[in-house]
Write the C-alpha cells for this entry.
Amino acid sequence: MAFIQVIPLWAMVRKDLQIFFSDRRAVIMSFAVPIAIASFFGSIFSGPSRTTEPAKISIIVVDQDQGTISKSITDGLQHDKNFKVTTTTLEQARDTVRRGRTAAAIVIPTGFGDAAGLALFSRREKPQLDVVFDPSRSTEVAMVRGILTQHVMEAVSKEMFAGPRGRQLVDETLNSVDSMPMPEDRKKLLRDMLGSVQSFYQQNQADPNAGSGGGLTMPYTVREEPMTAGSNIAYNGYAHSFAGMGIQFLLFAMANLGIEVLLERQRGLWKRLRSAPVSRVTLLAGKTLSGTIVALMTLWVSFGFAMIVFGVRIQGSLLGFIGVSVACALMAATFGLLVAALGNTPATARGVTTFAILIMVMLGGAWVPTFIFPAWLQQATLVVPPRWAVDGLDAMTWRGIGLSGAVGPVLALLGFAALFGTIAAARFRWEEA
Amino acid sequence: MLEIKHLRKSFGSLVAVDDVSFVVNAGQLVGLLGPNGAGKTTTVSMIAGLLTPDHGEVLVGGQRLAGDTDPAKRRIGLVPQDLALYDELTARDNLRFFGALYNLTGRALDEAIGAAMHLVELSDRIKDRVKTFSGGMKRRLNLAAGLLHDPDILLLDEPTVGVDPQSRNAIFDNLETLKRRGKALLYTTHYMEEAERLADRIVVIDHGKVVADDTVAGLQSRVAPVEDIGGVRANLETVFLTLTGRSLRD
C-alpha cells in the first residue's frame, strides 16, 4: 500500500542526519570544500571592485624604429590603463612570450613610422607591425590588437597633422604625387588635400596656441552601466560562484547518499528495513527528506559564509531564494535516489555519477558562465538541472529579480525532481535475496 | 505459529526453492540445514517478506502474510546473516531506529531497548558506538535488534558466523531463553553441533527441496543401520552428508 508512515519516516530522517553528523571531519569537509572552491572562483570572476584597478595585461614593446611615431605609440601604450608595458630586445621578447610570462610582444620595425605616415595619404604599401603572442591567451591578444589600433592611429595622425616629421612627409608626398599611379582628377584632389594640410601647418606655426595637436582620436566615449540589482549595487561574482559550487557539491553529497544506500544494501541493512512493516513510499520518502535537509544545509551554509565574508546579498526575493534552494535540494536528493536505483555496486556508481555530475555542472554554468558557450549549446544546457539552479540563484541574488524570476527555475527543478523520483521508484530493487 | 506451504522461487531458469513446506510451533526451535546454495536463505527471505514467492504461502498464526505493510510482519523478527547495524551510531541509536520501524516510540521503545540489551548482556555498552564493538558483541546486538518489537517468530540466518565460543554460547543461552518464553525460532546454520544442541526439529533442504523433516533422534535413526559403528549412533553431520551427498557445492 502506498502511504507514508510518520514514525518510521522521522526515524529514517533522524538516523540519516545522525550518521551525517557523526563524522565531524566529513561534515567540515562537505561544508569547507565548496566554500573554498567557490571563494577561489569568485575571486577570479568577480572583476575589479570600485576601489581597485583592473588587472593589467602584460605586454612587451620592441621599438626597432626609434622614430617620433614609434616613440609616440610606445608612450601611448605605456599610459593605457589596460596594459603593463615593458621594452626589450626582440630575442628577449620572443623568449618571454614563449615562456608564457607575457601575453604578447609588439614589434615596431625600423622605418615603420615614416611608412605608416606615407601610407595614410597614399596607396603606398602599408608597413607591417608584428605581434608575437601566446596562443593560450588569445582573449587577451584580441584586446591588445584592438587597443593597439587606437594608439597607432592616434600617433600616426597626430604626427602627420601636427608634427615636424609629418610636415616633411606631407612635402615629400606632394612632390611625388605626379609619379603616383592614379587618375589625374584623383591626383588633383590629393594635391588639394595635402595643400590644405600644409596651410594648416603654417597657421599652427603662426599661432601655436590655436590648439591643433590632437591628431585622430576616437570619435566617441563609452559610458558603462552594469545591469545588476540596482544602480548603486556592484556586481558580486561570489554570488554566482557560490551558486555554482553550491549546486555542484550538493549534487556530490546526494550522489554519496545514493551510494550509501548501495552500501547499506551490501551490509544487509535493507533486509532489516524491508522485513519491517514499512511501505516502500515511506522508505523512499525518508531518504528523500533526509537528503533534502542535508542538501539545503550545504547550500545555505555556503551562502551564509558568502554573505558574511564576501557581502553577497539576496537582492531579489527572499521567498524566491528559499523556493529555488528547496527545489534545488529536492532535485539533488532525488538524483541521489536515482543513483541508488540504477547503481549496481558502490564503486561503479561512484565513477559514473562523478562523471555525470561534472558534465552537468559544467554545462549548467557552475564553472564558467554559459554565455561563453556556442548558441546551440546554450540552448542545449536547458536540459541539465544545474543550469536552472544557477540561473534561479543568480536571479535571486546579484541580478535582483523579484519572485517572478524564481518561478521558472523552481518549476523546472521540481520537474526534474519528479522525473528522477519516478525513475528511481520504478527501477529501485526492492527484493533482497 | 509459522506455517510454510509449498513455497517456490526461481531466478530466471534457476529454481532456488521448490515446493518447500514445514511448520515451526511456539516454543520450538527448528534448524534449517542445507549445503551452500540449497535454498535456505531464499526460504528465510520469503518468510521475512524480502522476496515474493512465485508460488505458495507463509502463514503467521494461521493468517496469510501479504504485502509490505501487513501488520502480521510485526510478529516476525529477522536476524540476518550480515551484521546489519550502523557502525557510526551507538547501540542505543541503532535500536531506537530499528524499533521505530515497528512504530515503537517513547517509553515503550526505551523499555524494549532495555530488555533486549539486558538479554544479550550489552546494557553497559548501550551508549558506545557500534564500531567500537567486537565481532561477538555485534552479533549479540544484531540479535537484540531482531527482538526489539517482541516478535512471536524469530528468523535467525546463521547468527553465529565468525564469533568466538564465549559469544556463541551466550547467543545459545539467549535462544534457549526465548524458546522458554514461547517464541518460535527458525535457525539456519552450517554448524551441525549447534543444530544438535538447540534444535527440536531439523529440516534438511537440498537443491531447493525438503529432503528430511524430523527430530535429531529421528534423523539419526534413519541412517543408523548403515552408519552405526560399534554401538555409537551416527552424529548429525554424518546424517547430513548421507542425506545431501558428499559432492562439493558452488
Remarks:
- Chain A has two domains: 8-47+240-427, 58-210.
- Chain A touches chain B at residues 1, 3, 5, 7-8, 10-12, 14-15, 18-19, 22-23, 267-269, 271-280, 431-433 (CB under 8 Å).
